[in-house]
UniProtKB/TrEMBL annotation, chains A, B:
<feature type="binding site">
    <location>
        <position position="99"/>
    </location>
    <ligand>
        <name>Mg(2+)</name>
    </ligand>
</feature>
<dbReference type="Pfam" id="PF00459">
    <property type="entry name" value="Inositol_P"/>
</dbReference>
<dbReference type="GO" id="GO:0046872">
    <property type="term" value="F:metal ion binding"/>
</dbReference>
<feature type="binding site">
    <location>
        <position position="80"/>
    </location>
    <ligand>
        <name>Mg(2+)</name>
    </ligand>
</feature>
<feature type="binding site">
    <location>
        <position position="216"/>
    </location>
    <ligand>
        <name>Mg(2+)</name>
    </ligand>
</feature>
<feature type="binding site">
    <location>
        <position position="96"/>
    </location>
    <ligand>
        <name>Mg(2+)</name>
    </ligand>
</feature>
<dbReference type="InterPro" id="IPR000760">
    <property type="entry name" value="Inositol_monophosphatase-like"/>
</dbReference>
<dbReference type="GO" id="GO:0006020">
    <property type="term" value="P:inositol metabolic process"/>
</dbReference>
<dbReference type="GO" id="GO:0008934">
    <property type="term" value="F:inositol monophosphate 1-phosphatase activity"/>
</dbReference>
<protein>
    <submittedName>
        <fullName>Myo-inositol-1(Or 4)-monophosphatase</fullName>
    </submittedName>
</protein>
<dbReference type="GO" id="GO:0007165">
    <property type="term" value="P:signal transduction"/>
</dbReference>
<keyword id="KW-0479">Metal-binding</keyword>
<keyword id="KW-0460">Magnesium</keyword>
Amino acid sequence: MIGWPVPDPQIPSAAHAVLAEAAKAASAAFRDARARYDRAQLAETSSIGADGTASMRLDLLVEGAIAEVVEAHRINLLSEEVGFVDNGSAVTLVADPVDGTANAAAGVPLSAFSGAIVLDETPVEALTCWLDTGRCWHAVAGRSPEFRTSGRRSLDGAAVSLLRPHERSADAWWRVAKRAARVRILSTTCLETMLVAEGSTDAFADANSDTHRIVDLVAAMVALPGAGGAVLDVHGRPLEIDPDLRRRWSGVAAATPELADELAATIRG
Amino acid sequence: MIGWPVPDPQIPSAAHAVLAEAAKAASAAFRDARARYDRAQLAETSSIGADGTASMRLDLLVEGAIAEVVEAHRINLLSEEVGFVDNGSAVTLVADPVDGTANAAAGVPLSAFSGAIVLDETPVEALTCWLDTGRCWHAVAGRSPEFRTSGRRSLDGAAVSLLRPHERSADAWWRVAKRAARVRILSTTCLETMLVAEGSTDAFADANSDTHRIVDLVAAMVALPGAGGAVLDVHGRPLEIDPDLRRRWSGVAAATPELADELAATIRG
């Protein structure tokens, strides 16, 4: 069993009711799951999610709690395991119930709830909460949030977080690792992009492994531009809200548009 | 400025008074430094420490607070920046005041105080506290602590944390990364070894870059054996308390002695 406490999320008062309730529900379900199941049980997989990967017990439990919030508000849901739940609303909650599930199930204290309110196909507001500490980041599209990126413009000397290297894209990974002053792999895209948004790291990237789904990137797409940064795909593919979660991208989140472009070009080689 | 709060460390009541006081002093100094200085000021370097690397302002401030505790108790100190302070005692506090200083100064919430009580040349008790959350791990040599490793015996399928890759040892790094099921780089040896000790990851290694100093490894040397694991050097060099902090090792901490041996052999190639 993982004995560490799960604190309540510190949700900014300005957050949309659905985001606030979903984050609280996710945190409570996370706490309950860790009290009831050991590491192996949390990580147990019994089905394939809408994104094409196996769903862990922890994912399903937390997503179930979020789905109840969405049903009560009679909006739609687009989420990792269940896929698109169409309740005929113009509003959709796009959520990653537990980003960094492998961390969370093992006890590595780096996992997050991440959600965005999408009107038709446009993300308008986002909330990311670090489940292990309760720290939250809130942003509204088109406005400056209460945090700011580092402002760094070039890769040389930058602190870069990466997804773990894969053999199919090892060259791209090394090209970035060689030039960055610092390299980290925290294995939680949603938290790592918020560290970029608040200026604690300079950039985060999937170095061409096409691992990212839109649920991993949508909160960063809302938060980064207003904080001075940018989010894009390595190959310039548009980042779109698509009910088909099998679509993948190699996302880049960076402190400035210039750094995002340089990082993407370095990864393309 | 980094706005997140620094909570008090949750120190187990059984901890040695010097370790408890040093951890509290480190946490208070860390909180004070973050309230007074911005990221660039925290990371500013003005001198070379006893380990041969540049000392950041944050390191010096936290070490200064620990040195006061040591002076009050009239014992010796062996610490990253100041080196060995000989007060003629048989007891030495061996400390890494801020492990993961680069994380801490930037705002990446992964940094720790780590200290061990050494009698003559034998580490007898250790305390590691995650400064960003207050979580602490306490261990007494020869006893089972209140945590246990995962018990994993083989590298295939293991979750392994690594120091960032260096060009001089890239092959070794890649050999481990290819075989591990999960790879992380959290850039804080003291926290990463405690995640091994509590069973949240299976192993941690410096893949032959000879970056580790004894202050990085001493708490793990006390905590791991009683929790089922092992700590060793990739090349079998003895892990010794030596006042010369320029001595380096490539440390391996693993859930079992078998996994530690396999990891070291894989790194040697």
